[in-house]
Amino acid sequence: MATKRKLDMSGTNETEEQTSSEAKTKRVNISFKSISGSLTKEDVEKSSQSSNKIADRNEKPVKEKDKKVARKDESSTIIPITINIGRNETSTYKYVDTKEKFIEVMKELQEMIENKQMIAVDCEGVNLSRFGSVTLVNIGTRDLVYLIDILKIGNSVFDDGLRSILEDSGIEKLMFDCREDADALLHIHKVKLNGVLDVQILEVNNRIHVYRNGYTKIRSLKHCLELYVTDDTLVNIKLQGRSSMNMSSNIWEKRPLDENMLKYASVDILSLFKLYDALRTRMSHIVWKAASSRYCDTARSKNRTYRDGSGILPKGIIL
């Protein structure tokens, strides 16, 4: 009996499955006939258009994401530009105008400093002093200059690493007439420039007693290059930039910066290494660094009501 009941149940299950399958097939056939019977050419076209729209919506986010990635990669890519700094000598500068580029540059600078490479610093701006603006802070070695655009990136660059380099007395920085740079950095950006080795002090040292009453004239960077560097390549680049500056008093606040101005800013850094090589034996390192520190304080420590630059070396700088 058990076997028969088992067989009967098995047969019943098979019959039910077959009936269910036939019913499904019938319903599918009826649905298909109903749909195909009422489907027109217009319905087919509408269905196709709807499918295309859905496909476009699905693809669009992916394309936009790809574009965002491409823009990010572009904003963090620094294109090195090679310039001639001598008859058979070249160097490179990198224009840094985005936060992403700046972050990458800070990593490179820290590595240079850790490797004890000598660096030089210079600022550009309109009426450079507490009464004007700092639009570029330029830092470099003999082979590579970074032109950091403060106007485009913003003051955050100082808190993101630039301040620690400029204020660290242990990181020595070649400069040329650091007085107004120091004044602008302190009173506009709250950065106290330190660790300066001012090349102008080296140049003026041998002439300190030439003039009566202890007054000694200071010379411009261009004049020093003409006197101590036999190759005039750097001077010519400065002359091209100076020509552009004469046509516009606020050229350092204009964007995009002209190529001549980028080269001019680079040369202000690269020239310091040339002059350092020519003049470094004129003073002991300790005396030079102390004199440079006093030179930094000349303008920034005064109560000033206007930019009162002088072509005479202040007393008490070189002891």
TrEMBL record:
Q: Its Gene Ontology biological processes?
A: piRNA processing
Task: Extract the SUPFAM superfamilies matched here.
Answer: Ribonuclease H-like (SSF53098)
List all membrane-crossing ranges: none
> What Pfam families does UniProt report for this protein, alphabetically?
DNA_pol_A_exo1 (PF01612)
Basic and acidic residues bias: where?
A: 54-71
List every stretch annotated Disordered.
1-71
Keyword annotations for this protein, in alphabetical order, are:
Exonuclease, Hydrolase, Nuclease
Keyword set includes Aminoacyl-tRNA synthetase: no
Q: What is this protein called?
A: Exonuclease 3'-5' domain-containing protein 1
Source organism per UniProt: Mytilus galloprovincialis (Mediterranean mussel)
